[in-house]
Design a protein that fits this description.
Elements: E1 2-4, E2 10-12, E3 26-32, E4 44-47, E5 51-52, E6 57-59, E7 63-67, E8 75-83, E9 91-97, E10 103-108, E11 115-122, E12 125-126, E13 129-133, E14 142-148, E15 153-159, E16 169-173, E17 183-190, E18 195-205, E19 244-254, E20 259-261, E21 272-280, E22 284-291, E23 297-304, E24 306-307, E25 316-319, E26 323-325, E27 331-337, E28 343-353
Antiparallel strand pairs: 1-2, 3-18, 4-7, 5-6, 6-18, 7-17, 8-14, 8-18, 9-10, 9-17, 10-11, 11-12, 11-13, 14-15, 15-16, 19-28, 20-27, 21-25, 21-26, 21-28, 22-23, 22-27, 24-25
Length: 354
């Protein structure tokens, strides 16, 4: 599966991408926990002289970080941050910002530490909500999130490390949303207080996040999950093995020049991936056969063993490519002893349903 990135180019989904707090499939991401001695200039364009110490970024008035990486909706930014104090002149920002001065941001402004502003500007037109109670406090870290999707934007603000579900979604906008491309902005625009950021993460997403992932609830809605420690395969409808399995054929005292034929192996009724592994104490030729029509056998891969004896591994080995075969047709391995004496050989078939 492929999706466009922030520049409009087609790109594949990355299998090793992290999973955001709010869920969603990740194409690209930006992550910084500020554990170096200074701001990483490879990630950020820096204004002023913000400080970094003890895995924390400190921003005062006139100081800002603007990511060099761009993001296109759907995208998500998550920032763990706090204000040290609040003053009437404060204007500190967290969120998405475009080079043409459009934005979707959280703003710390005013003297009430409990409140944050939710800012939206597209095409020079602002739709702001100010003084929203988010139960924040000075010097208490919270997670500020903004999700910009295709036709909606969500602001969320919640406690860090709490054992409660994310239920503090404060705004949902479904029109007049800027279309990017966005950069992540952390900025002190005005005021006497300081903003401290412990971690910032931003994600270019390949799909839209269901509204419940940021706190909304819909009966019967799907929940994004990630499966770990298992193959990315479905359960086979009729299987000789589980979703992943193997079979072994051993040929003992196989004479020089003789051919050993393994048993017919039937795995899945679905299509499946097959790979064969071979070992022996004499050099050998190997091949994998599959039934083309339910009766006649056809060679689907072939090769010669590799000599590993020079590295004190007294074995010859071989390995087939990964084959995609019709799961309803039997497969088998064959080995020919190319040595000068009788030998022992083993052929292993590994199968995974698709």
């Amino acid at each position: 599966m492929r999706f466009t990135d922030a520049t409009g180019r087609w790109k594949p989904i990355r299998y090793d991408a992290p999973l955001p707090v709010a869920g969603g499939q990740v194409l690209e991401w930006l992550s910084d926990d500020f554990n170096a001695a200074s701001v990483d200039n490879n990630r950020w364009d820096v204004s002023g002289s913000p400080s970094v110490s003890s895995s924390e970024l400190t921003l005062s008035t006139g100081q800002a970080l603007l990511s060099k990486q761009y993001f296109q909706p759907p995208c998500l930014v998550e920032v763990v941050a706090t204000m040290t104090a609040r003053a009437s002149s404060d204007d500190f920002r967290l969120g998405f910002y475009t080079d043409d001065n459009n934005l979707v941001e959280w703003r710390a402004a005013g003297t009430n530490a409990n409140n944050m502003d939710m800012l939206l500007r597209a095409g020079g037109v602002s739709q702001d909500i100010t003084g929203q109670f988010v139960n924040a406090a000075n010097n208490a870290y919270r997670l500020a999130s903004i999700y910009v999707g295709i036709g909606e934007a969500l602001w969320a603000y919640r406690a860090v490390g709490g054992l409660v579900t994310r239920n503090e979604v404060y705004r949902l906008v479904e029109q007049g949303i800027p279309d990017g491309p966005f950069r992540v902005r952390l900025a002190g625009l005005a005021g006497t207080s300081t903003l401290r950021v412990h971690r910032v993460q931003a994600y270019q997403l390949a799909d839209m996040i269901p509204v419940g992932a940021l706190g909304h609830h819909v009966d019967g809605m799907a929940i994004p999950v990630r499966v770990t420690n298992g193959p990315w395969v479905g359960s086979p409808s009729s299987a000789g093995l589980t979703t992943m399995g193997s079979s072994v054929d051993t040929f003992t005292s196989l004479a020089a020049g003789a051919v050993g034929t393994g048993s017919n192996r039937s795995f899945f009724t679905e299509h499946c991936h097959i790979q064969a592994h071979f070992m022996g104490d004499q050099p050998f030729t190997w091949w994998v056969e599959a039934q083309a029509d339910g009766t006649n056998w056809q060679v689907v891969d072939y090769g010669a063993s590799v000599d590993a004896t020079t590295d004190a591994v007294v074995r010859y080995f071989g390995r087939s490519v990964i084959l995609q075969l019709h799961g309803g047709r039997p497969v088998r391995v064959k080995v020919r002893n190319n040595g000068t004496a009788a030998g022992t050989f083993r052929g292993t078939l590994i199968a995974t349903s698709l």
